[in-house]
Hints:
The structure holds 2 protein chains of 2 kinds. Chain A is of the alpha/beta class. Chain A has 3 domains: 2-40 and 102-123 and 367-477, Polyamine Oxidase, Chain A, domain 2 (Alpha-Beta Complex); 55-100 and 289-364 and 485-530, FAD/NAD(P)-binding domain; 158-280, Guanine Nucleotide Dissociation Inhibitor, domain 1. Chain A has helices at 2-12, 14-24, 40-48, 70-81, 125-133, 178-196, 217-220, 227-233, 239-253, 262-270, 292-301, 349-355, 430-439, 442-456, 487-493, 512-530; strands at 35-37, 59-66, 87-90, 102-104, 109-111, 116-118, 137-141, 144-147, 158-162, 165-168, 284-286, 306-307, 310-317, 323-329, 334-345, 367-377, 391-394, 402-404, 417-424, 464-477, 499-501. In chain A, helix 4 (70-81) runs parallel beside helix 11 (292-301) and helix 4 (70-81) crosses helix 16. The longest helix of chain A is centred in the middle third of the chain and has 19 residues, at 178-196. The radius of gyration of chain A is 23 Å and the shape is globular. Mean pLDDT of chain A is 92; it is low at 1-28. By secondary structure, chain B is of the alpha/beta class. In chain B, a hairpin with a 2-residue loop joins strand 2 (253-259) and strand 3 (262-267). The relative contact order of chain B is 0.08. Classes of the chains: A alpha/beta, B alpha/beta. At the A-B interface, loops of A face helix 14 and helix 15 of B.
Amino acid sequence: MKAETSRRTILAGGSAAAGASLLGGCVQPTMAGMLDGADWRRGHRLRDGSFPAPDGPVQDIDVVIAGGGVAGLATGWRLADAGFANFTLFELEDRTGGNARSGRNAVSAYPLGAHYLPVPNRDAAALRYMLRSFGMIVGDAPDGPVYDPYQLCADLEERLLWRGEWQEGLFPQSGLPSGQQAQRQRFDQSMDYFRRAVGLDGRPAFTIPSVLSSVDPRFTALDRLNFADWLDSEGFTAPALRAYLRYCCRDDYGAEPEDVSAWAGIHYFAARRGWAANGDGDRELTWPEGNDRLASLMAARIHSNLRPAHTVFRLAVTAEGRAELDVFDHTAGRSRRLRAKVAILAMPHFVAARVAPSVCSPGGLSYAPWVVANVTVSRPPEGKGVPLAWDNVSTASDALGYVVATHQTTSAALGPTVLTWYMPLSRETPQVARKIMLTRSLERWQEIVRADMLAMNPDLDGAIERIDVWRWGHAMIRPTPGFLTDPARLAARSAHPPVLFAHSDLSGLSLFEEAHHHGVAAAEMALTHLGHAFESIA
Amino acid sequence: MAEAEPAITVDSAERAPASLAVILLVSVLVVATCGLIYELLAGTLASYLLGDSVTQFSTVIGTYLFAMGVGSWLSRHVRRDEMGVFVRVEILIAALGGWSAAGLFLLFPVVGDFRIALYALVLAIGVLVGLEIPLLIRILRHRFAFRELVSNVLTYDYVGALIASLLFPLVLVPWLGMMRTGFVFGLANVAVALALLVALRRQRRVAVDVIAALVVAASLIAGLVAADRMQRWSEVAFYGEPVIYARSTPYQRMVLTRRGEDLRLYLNGNLQFSTRDEYRYHEALVWPVLGRVARPDTVLILGGGDGLAAREVLRDPRVRQVTLVDLDPEMTRLFRDTPQLAALNADSLSSPRMRIHNTDAFRWVREARGSYDAVIVDFPDPTEFSLGKLYTESFYREVARLLAPEGVMTVQSTSPLVAPESYWTVATTLESAGLHARGYHAYVPSFGEWGFTLAAHRPFAKATRLPQNLRFLTPSSERAMFDFPPDMARRPTPVNRLDNQALVRSFAREWGNYEG
């Protein structure tokens, strides 16, 4: 009920939030901050199709990567690491990084989207290879790779505001009836079963990269159900457990349990078997700027190949089996045409279907809108119970809480910091939620964020210096029931040169590891096609 | 009596509904409880702020009882309208008694002589409380036979006293704290006034009294809500000694207190030193290191913004340069520029041999280059996860990189007696960072039995060279510091790492047990 009320507060915005702010103290007339987000005007221009015709000579090139998010950057990084340089990466936005991008102010760098990477599984060989080359894996011990302690999330990692008191972890530890605790234990046992389960094909039932998971129908049949129904059928009905699982679904998939495939819901809990020395397998890597640390290191490796502010707006396959691409340069205001031996569409699938309708069908995929706010404060939040953690979540809020940008870098208990507040707009359909998101003013968003922050941390009253709001219209793909067998997704995964796809959409799970896997796989397929010798790292 | 008075006289109480008698008897119980609570609050607060609890309790109780006598005597001058006077007395007690604890805490740092304020308040409350029972007896005199009346009133009075004396130490002080206790019982007084006003509303004009009661009630509720904030404003509600300086910097709350010759520094409420015995701590911190380094040319001090460790270091003429890294510029500025404090550290912070960096040591060591012959690590105890980072293997690896091959370092490592696991975690962690480590301890009365850990790239020299004029250490007492009796003996501990913060967790557990 509590979550319900506060959701209304958040979605109703205006008066309710203003009322909450009044309770928390006087509303400042104007709060500093910027309203920003993925450039939807450039994005929508693709939908509306108004680009000048290409001029100038057609340029021949070996590889074009269209899209500079994590998958596109991983593709480029892999090509460069194999000693291959004849490629260009076009990115529609002014900066690469996709939803791993970050901002920075005088206090700290901070994430605008994805902000951590769990210690990868043994299966994620390519990712481990990259982390080693970036100095994030610093050695090897008998029990696994040794991660740089500065980049593993420092203790205290998580805390939960539950009945007015902060406690460690994200599930209530105390004050729950024993029946609810018992269900939590039974749920953990159930997930443990799935974590160990191996299909008839000899593959783990659930793993990351998810395409390496078993296709044994015993497990894939779960994709026909939604997660909420599966939980009901298994008797996992305890309110505290369901609230926690809802948090998890919204955190990783931006969607309600009713909208998430049961296979994906279980994947969240059963696929992680992080492999690291010192018992660090269940840890996360994180940085003040979030996953932009990784995106920027990949971008730095291929700096001369990057072309931001360029939209690839048309792709077709020629009779000679080449990919013909039309690219609009937003700075020069001109279009030109390229002919590539391989074109890799490292973009969300719904965009790829607009750019290359001849080779890509839109399918039934849907995308969750998110709002991320960066709240700059003159002093860190406190609160009753355990002290400030990296990730701070409230059971009474419909937002996902906040992470602390300076958690990894400082030993000062006080002093200014930046708190990154996350909110997937999952209650409405994505279309309705996107409309709500775009029509709200900066002031309205700031009121909502401020009221939610003060509800969690009344001690922040008077300490909030600015709130910068970032909107993601299509933040992440939603793994809805049936996504495993979506024909568009399966077709994209089995594509062959000259057109390849690389995006976490191919997995249907918006995770760094998935994007990276598909980027590396596409790059290696392109290298094979071009006859460039390399040693696979996958 | 009440001849020509058009207002309600005591006789009207007789004609009032029977429920009024019940309200009045309950009032006896409530006012008796409240009265004793205010007395206990004043006594406790005076002992807390002024020390010497026997004297404070004795004089506060004496003054209070005497004032009650004055109040009883004054009651004879109330000639009419006992009920009206009683209601107003209740409202006044609610205001004065309710705000007594908060008011005294807030007044303490700002008034010249706190005792005048204290006894004035105790007198005022006592006089008002002294009026209560005589007035109530007179109001009730027509409802009961005299025999019954005295029995009833005194019974409720003494029962109220029992309730107060049990609630105060067992429930109120531990759970509500002194400020909130005052407000809660002020509200009880005002509730009595309001209940009587409601019962009397048909017989008399009560509007002005009701408004006064509501204003007082509102102020008490506001006080109750803001008690936490006031507690923070009022340092004395927290520190046992008079506060002579308090300042919040962006990084910490610095408070200096002084009682007699004893000057103390608290950071975020934790004692950093007392001038009575800090020489013991700082000699034990510094000289085991300097005495084991052949040529301590360059010395690094991490933390120690009070300049006291630096004072010891600079006594060694062999030291050419001291680098001090402390987070808070206010701290080093205060101890450099305030003559009284600079005298404590012998102007170490303005020495030409001193280099000060005001930055986060956790970041500084990662970027620093250079080689130091001695390193002194003197951070606050690992009470928080942020501070715990300064005791991790990662941090010690950086310090080891800055430590010369023949250099020696020491680490302030909390109490090996109170928190043996935490204490030995430091040694385990230093060893895990590739260093040799050895614990030692010293008795510092204001801290108790206190621990340090020496660390170096190579095994330590047994022998040490100490200067002549130390107040605490001699060669033989220095040797004895390395001996640990069984209750503090080394035990296996985890390594403190950034992602497990084993030290912060064991520290909270061990000190939590100790402080109960």
